[in-house]
């Protein structure tokens, strides 16, 4: 059995990617890229030194053909460049802090061209969606969006109709001023990162926690490991809980282990993840203070969660590092399953176990295993190194622990949310107003002095054209030519309506009569015998329908249903006011309904009830290009 080529795991849905290209990527060497790599890391180190990332820190790797670095970053570029990816998880601030860092890099290294995208695609353009040219969409922006010298660039179609990556990079290096986005687009994107790096410091939260001495020692030397501890606690499963129940690594003395008070720095998102979940202490964990001691209990409970998260993370990574079950192993297993390597065998069967053992041996022999094993074991090795040296509780007893930061922001997020929603609403209103003004100007040019006139008959015609329009799979569509006269065959319409409303027997008879000459081959004598019976059935059915209709009309007379519709007699003024009572009774019994008038009246009532706000009537008629007059009752 041949194994499929190993591949990297698919990136998580909450990941941001970036690729940095030098001005002349084809001439770049390992030395130049290494030098550039160090310069970039030095330029951003003042911002990242004390920052606690949610999952992984900002990183860059060197990619050189013909052996580009295999990683989860789907840049798939054969050009020499630097690239990286960062999983931000539940902490969107990590993503926008990364955007800020890349803008900072592009400003300090103006000759670099940077690509930036996430699992949703070109997410920067989403922020500026109301200001982009109409032709910009996910299908037309491949190899067009770049960050250079602190500006967003969109390669215009007029310059490069179908650019390759190399074409775009050459264009940027020679005429980057022609591809800069407009000021509104640049401003909309910069507004998202204008508060950084201060916002990054604001997103940090320091809190007091009572943890075992071993955990305190690890966090003292490697504060960034708190992110892995929180991740281990927040993403725990049944297997991980087995490690937390024993606490073999961080609670060697069991309940006799001493708890020390330390200040732990983490992101606000991590603090919220720890705080929102209830968790019972394992039996081996030292006893927590009573709940009446509110502050001490809160500190000890938070320390319990950090300790269990650290233990679960340590044991899982130690196991996965030894067994080679990291991210690349998962991708390797997926490729085996897709290729039919296991032949549909049940997991656990002897033949399945034999194939699994062969796959594991092959995987361990590849470089992917050693690389992934080192990555998974790195925190484990570092923790073992720290705890290998002697440590004592005296290191923490004499130090002053600052009080915890206020967590009022946990309960006042509604204000920030409403503020963000209001900003979006204003942006949408300005966008709608801009397009309405354009539409009014165009309509005024088309209609001249009659631009402000409102013709109800046009509304009815447009609505009928809209209903008759055959829409595509994308949904309902407005007719393209709105001024074209609607072709409506009233006779054919009523004929079809009669065929639908007729009884099943009548429809069946009509179908037989129409198709007897071509589809059916009856004997003439059979037809002659059935003529009289068919006529009798028709008479009986007509009599029944008429009687049923009359009975239904009589029942509806006392109701208010007829008054809810506008009849023809209410529209056309009566010339002869001296009609008899008999004629009035006949009009009352049969008053034809004007469909067009009722349609327009219903739309006007719906539009009026919206009170100037968006609604179904204004949305539908706006799609058809109809501008309703203002309600005359307003302001009276």
Topology:
Layout: E1 15-21, H1 30-48, E2 61-63, E3 81-87, H2 92-108, E4 113-118, H3 123-127, E5 145-148, E6 151-154, H4 165-175, H5 183-190, H6 198-202, E7 204-212, H7 213-221, H8 226-234, H9 238-246, E8 259-267, H10 268-276, H11 294-323, H12 327-338, H13 350-364, H14 367-388, H15 394-397, H16 413-447, H17 456-468, H18 490-501, H19 504-515, H20 524-556, H21 568-571, H22 581-589, H23 595-609, H24 616-623
Antiparallel strand pairs: 1-3, 1-4, 2-3, 5-6, 7-8
Helix pairs in contact: 1-2, 8-11, 9-11, 11-14, 17-23
Explain briefly what this protein structure is.
The chain has 636 residues and is an alpha+beta fold.
Structural notes for this entry:
The protein has 636 residues and is an alpha+beta fold. Among the domains are: 15-190, no CATH class; 205-323 and 377-410, no CATH class; 325-365, no CATH class; 502-556, no CATH class. The chain has 24 helices and 8 strands. It has helices at residues 30-48, 92-108, 123-127, 165-175, 183-190, 198-202, 213-221, 226-234, 238-246, 268-276, 294-323, 327-338, 350-364, 367-388, 394-397, 413-447, 456-468, 490-501, 504-515, 524-556, 568-571, 581-589, 595-609, 616-623; strands at residues 15-21, 61-63, 81-87, 113-118, 145-148, 151-154, 204-212, 259-267. It has a 4-stranded antiparallel sheet with strand order 2-3-1-4. A two-stranded antiparallel ribbon has the order 5-6. Strands 7-8 form a two-stranded antiparallel sheet. Helix 1 crosses helix 2 (92-108), helix 8 (226-234) crosses helix 11 (294-323) and helix 11 runs antiparallel to helix 14. The radius of gyration is 37 Å and the shape is extended.
